[in-house]
Amino acid sequence: MLRTLTGQTTQQHLQNKIIEKAKILLSTTNLPISEIAYSLGFEYPQSFQRLFKDLIDISPLKF
């Protein structure tokens, strides 16, 4: 049903929501990237950084 409504898989939809939340945290707080990653449920900050770069085409640090 989600795919019918959004054109995205459940995983893609969740990843996009996580990245949107990350963008807000990166632009409105001074938290380190690792803390943002942990707060979004990532066990390893590198996983967060890789996902962010894959979806946004820039690193969280440059964002």
Protein described:
This protein has a single domain (2-56), classed as Homeodomain-like (Arc Repressor Mutant, subunit A, Orthogonal Bundle). It has helices at 2-6, 10-28, 33-39, 45-56. It is elongated and about 40 Å long. The mean pLDDT is 94. With 63 residues, it is mostly helical. 68% of the residues lie in helices and 0% in strands.
What's the architecture, going by CATH? Orthogonal Bundle
> What is the highest CATH level, the class?
Mainly Alpha
Please tell me how large the radius of gyration is.
12 Å
Can you write the helix and strand succession as a string? HHHH
Question: If you average the pLDDT, what whole number results?
Answer: 94
Number of strands: 0
Q: CATH H level: which superfamily?
A: Homeodomain-like
Number of domains: 1
Can you tell me the CATH topology?
Arc Repressor Mutant, subunit A
Helix content: 55-70%
Structural class: mainly alpha
Strand content: under 5%
- Shape field: elongated
Q: Could you tell me how far the N terminus lies from the C terminus, measured between alpha carbons in angstroms?
A: 33 Å
Summary tags:
63 residues, mainly alpha, Arc Repressor Mutant, subunit A, 4 helices, 0% strand
Blueprint (SSEs and pairs):
Layout: H1 2-6, H2 10-28, H3 33-39, H4 45-56
